[in-house]
Amino acid sequence: MPMHKPLTASRSARLSGRLHVPGDKSISHRALILSALATGRSRIEGLLEADDIMATAKALAALGAEVARSNGAFEVSGQGVGGLRVPGQPLDFGNSGTGSRLMLGVVAGHDMKAEFTGDESLRRRPMGRVLAPLTAMGLRVESKEEGETTLPLTVCGTHDLIPIVYELPVPSAQVKSAILLAGLHAPGRTSVVEKMATRDHTELMLAHFGAEVLVEGRDDGTRVVTVCGDAEFGRASLSVPGDPSSAAFAIAAAAIRPGSDVIIEGVLMNPTRTGFSETLREMGGRIELLDLRGEGGEQVGDLRIQSASLKGVRVPPERAPSMIDEYPILAVVAAFAEGETRMEGLSELKIKESDRLRAIAAGLAACGVVARIEGDDLIVEGRGEVKGGGLVETYMDHRIAMAFLILGLGASAPVTVDDTRMIATSFPGFAELMTKLGANFT
Ligand code: S3P
């Protein structure tokens, strides 16, 4: 990899303007994967053109699904469920946990051997959570050491997968989706039981493609998602809404800079993804939903954000799945609020692109913010004002980089993040878009 690319953010005047954020990362991965499993040529508008998604596109191409850019959209020629071919090279997912875990589910249903690998950050992340259910279905893992569960790994899929009923031990949409994707290849029904609802893009998109998928909500809040195996479905047209996890950075910047007024168009409003906006509203944030509409099986809206004085709140653990990627930026917002913000039940943050719990706490400390970790909780003492002036280490984590650049826009002294290269994994054009709104980056 080339040299680090640091960037400095300085206190900015009010932010204003209209913008579109790039396409949703979760939906983009699924759009490519399901298109590759469909029969016929699917068309995807608004696909996120970021490194994580391009890694999934390359992996699918190596497996025999043609992926091509055409008239501003992407077209994928699907090979039908079970129709992918043995790859001639290792499948490299770069920084992407989602791409690698979902594709393990796909490869599980094919009679093939494939090597999965990724960058330094991905090679540290746990794959055991998907390998456990997938090996119960029939996937075999060939690793140097018995029980090895980190990449690189060589796996052998099979045409004879066994359908399972699996209760998720952790609230993870990646694990749920890997099992459902494998289940498409197994005979009979494969079910995933989740006690806490996680993002439901896989089930919504399967229905959009015309695959048989059943979702049962039980009285105790448990959801059971079932796919019918030996599936066959045809091509679809898809349109990817703006990513609420990317929008969160612009929302936060407008919320903390006095006098700001920003409109973000076409943001995904799926209720399994709106925890950040909900929390910001509880803090006193002014977010208006202007036009809620349905697009391709998902809800989409325009958001207007105006600055406001914010107060600290308690964020309950049940909310974590609906805003799991937004805690870095929420912690930054909390630093500008008055009073304590207590974010509870964040064990999953420790195994993201970095150990985000520690990365957030260290970054806040470097910027003069009082914060502490208590078990799996993060507590930030908001003082309305943030000193800044620090150098923040980003640990190969795009969201840590973006969150602390936003912090710098409101801090008394400029804030430098050590590396911005990873921002390209999820939000290409972040600095340019924010600069257009009035952000001061150098
Ligand atoms: C994702 C699920 C979440 C999230 C990730 C994207 C997905 O991960 O953090 O950025 O697209 O399914 P977990 O499944 O590990 O919670």
- Can you identify the CATH superfamily of the largest domain? Enolpyruvate transferase domain
- On the 0 to 100 scale, the average pLDDT is 97
Whole-number count of domains: 2
Which fold name fills CATH's third level, the topology of the largest domain? UDP-n-acetylglucosamine1-carboxyvinyl-transferase, Chain
State the CATH class of the largest domain: Alpha Beta
**Which small compounds were modeled alongside the protein?**
shikimate-3-phosphate
Fraction of residues in β-strands: 25-35%
Specify the biggest β-sheet. Answer: 5 strands, mixed
* Percentage of residues in helical conformation: 25-40%
Global morphology: globular
Care to give the gist of this entry?
With 442 residues, the protein is α+β, with helices and mostly antiparallel strands. The chain is built from 12 helices and 25 strands.
Describe this structure in words.
- The protein has 442 residues and is α+β, with helices and mostly antiparallel strands.
- The chain has two domains: 7-23 and 241-441, UDP-n-acetylglucosamine1-carboxyvinyl-transferase, Chain (Alpha-beta prism); 25-239, Enolpyruvate transferase domain (UDP-n-acetylglucosamine1-carboxyvinyl-transferase, Chain, Alpha-beta prism), CATH 3.65.10.10.
- Helices cover 29% and strands 26% of the residues.
- The chain is built from twelve helices and 25 strands.
- It has helices at 25-37, 51-62, 97-108, 128-137, 173-183, 201-209, 244-256, 275-282, 327-336, 356-366, 398-410, 430-437; strands at residues 7-10, 16-20, 39-45, 66-70, 73-79, 91-92, 113-117, 140-142, 153-156, 165-167, 189-194, 213-217, 223-228, 237-239, 261-268, 286-289, 293-295, 298-306, 314-315, 338-343, 370-374, 377-383, 391-392, 415-417, 440-441.
- Strands 2, 15, 16, 17 and 18 form a five-stranded mixed beta sheet that branches. Strands 23-24-1-25 form a four-stranded mixed beta sheet, covered by helices on one side.
- Strand 12 (213-217) and strand 13 (223-228) form a beta hairpin.
- The radius of gyration is 21 Å and the shape is globular.
- The model has no long low-confidence stretch (mean pLDDT 97).
- Residues 26, 98, 172-174, 177, 199, 324-325, 348 line the site of shikimate-3-phosphate.
